[in-house]
Design goal:
Pfam families: AAA_23. This protein has about 100 residues and is α+β, with helices and mostly antiparallel strands. It is about 15% helix and about 35% strand.
C-alpha cells in the first residue's frame, strides 16, 4: 500500500463550496486543524464514508442542493450526490473502496 492516496473532493455541503483533500494511506498520525466552521467535521465524515457505508446519510440529512463527494485513487473514482438521499452515481456498489478495500 506504499504511496497510495485518496483524493476527496467535497462540493456544496454545509458552508463548503469546494474543498479538495488528499488522504495519504500510510502509517502515522494525521492532524486536521482549522478555524471554527472551516469544514473539519465535514471532511472527517467524508473520510468515514470510506469505511462506514451510511456516514453521509447519517450526518448530512439536510438539504444540500447539488451536494457531491468524489473519491479518487489510482484507477478508481466514485461520486456520491445528494438529491433527496445520497446515492452513488459512477459505478456499482460492489466496486466501492470500503468493500474492495485499501485497508
Amino acid at each position: 500500500m506504499e504511496n497510495q492516496e485518496i483524493k476527496i473532493i467535497i462540493e456544496n455541503i454545509k458552508k463548503i463550496k469546494k474543498m479538495e483533500f488528499i488522504l495519504k494511506l500510510e502509517k502515522g498520525i494525521i492532524v486536521i486543524s482549522g478555524d471554527n466552521a472551516s469544514g473539519k467535521s465535514t471532511l472527517l465524515t467524508c473520510i468515514a464514508k470510506l469505511v462506514q457505508r451510511s456516514s453521509l446519510n447519517n450526518e448530512f440529512r439536510g438539504i444540500y442542493e447539488n451536494g457531491r463527494v468524489t473519491y479518487v485513487s489510482l484507477d478508481k473514482k466514485f461520486i456520491w450526490e445528494k438529491n433527496r438521499n445520497w446515492h452513488e452515481t459512477s459505478s456499482k456498489h460492489e466496486d466501492m473502496f470500503f468493500i474492495g478495500g485499501f485497508f
